[in-house]
Amino acid sequence: MTKQTQINESARISTAFRTKKEWRNFLLLFLSMSVIALLCTIGLLVYKNPVPMTSPSFFPIVRRRIVAVIAMILAALCQSTATLTFQSITNNRVITPSLLGFDALYAACNTAVVFFFGTKTLIALDGLPAFCVQVILMVFLAAMLYGTLLRDSGRDMQFVLLIGIVIGTGLRSVASFMRRVLEPSEFDVLQAKLFGSVNNADPSYFYAAIPLVVISIIMLYAYAPKLNVLSLGKDVSTVLGLHHRFHLLVLLSLVSVLMAVSTALVGSLTFYGFLVVTLVYRLVPTYDHRYLYPMAIVLAFLIITAAYFCMYHIFHAQGVVTIIIELFGGVVFLAMILKKSAY
């Protein structure tokens, strides 16, 4: 054995990373992004507080800002883990869980309320019961799609995605028709509701959202070793002893819960999760989801907190944060499509 070979062998470790240097780089990057995200969070809470820290009104203002930060944490958890899981089980890096029609159903439900009952009813429906109803409807839609996998063993995930696209397109068409005949004032109120923003989150939502998200994240992380195998494809996972269809349905159900909670909580964020997961694949030199999940969560939280901090306190453009995130995500999506079509 040559000296160079001995050096290469000593640098190798029997983990998800090929060398100890890759592991150190991952750890350094993870800690760095965590610190930056924490600094952005502190900045969102205390920077440019209109009252001094010694005033009794300082902490009530911070508590109001904490609601937005909690919504950011939940959105980052839901979008990053759901998109990463969805792309892994479908073995496709250019699709998002939004293809299942969650945002279309959310828009159609709220538009129908304004169309039939008026804006007063939409405003009055804000609260925990309305949030739970929206989550249940979106999970029910996903369950209908997944039922096709149970009823017919010959149908695969591509068939489910096709049905989801068709249903989403139909719901968007119906919602678009109803919005066209609304009064301008009603349209403004509805558009503010549909626009993805952490300001849409009501503190009463957290009583249901936090337990659902925490339980789903724990289950996904526990499934990480099996997801590593499932991402290799149906044939390989079956040969290695996994019940592919059963585990696929479990993971899709968890993805549905996370996407439903995120959409009902802050609105539609189509390309946010896609942007995060695409960057994670570039930054992390491993396919082990035990390391991809934490990095995706931290990166998602860093992106949304940094975006809100910069837009609120540097550019003074409070209403365009999610637009900027979706714009960058859309550009990355188009770049991925064009890159694939070039081969």
Features:
343 residues; 76% helix; 15 helices; disordered N terminus; mainly alpha; 0% strand; globular
Q: Can you characterise this structure?
A:
With 343 residues, the chain is mostly helical. 76% of the residues lie in helices and 0% in strands. The protein is built from 15 helices and no strands. 33% of the residues are buried.
Largest sheet: none
H/E series: HHHHHHHHHHHHHHH
- Stretches where pLDDT is under 50 for at least 5 consecutive residues are 3-12
pLDDT average, as an integer?
83
Instruction: Tell me the Rg in angstroms.
Output: 22 Å
The rounded distance between the terminal residues' Cα atoms is 40 Å
Give helix % range: over 70%
Q: What percent strand?
A: under 5%
Strand tally: 0
Shape: globular
Q: Could you give the topology of this structure?
A:
Blueprint: H1 3-11, H2 20-46, H3 58-90, H4 102-117, H5 119-124, H6 128-151, H7 157-180, H8 184-194, H9 206-222, H10 224-230, H11 234-239, H12 244-266, H13 272-283, H14 289-313, H15 321-341
Helix pairs in contact: 2-3, 2-14, 3-9, 3-12, 3-13, 3-14, 4-6, 4-7, 4-8, 6-7, 6-12, 9-12, 13-14, 13-15, 14-15
Summarize, please.
The protein has 343 residues and is mainly α.
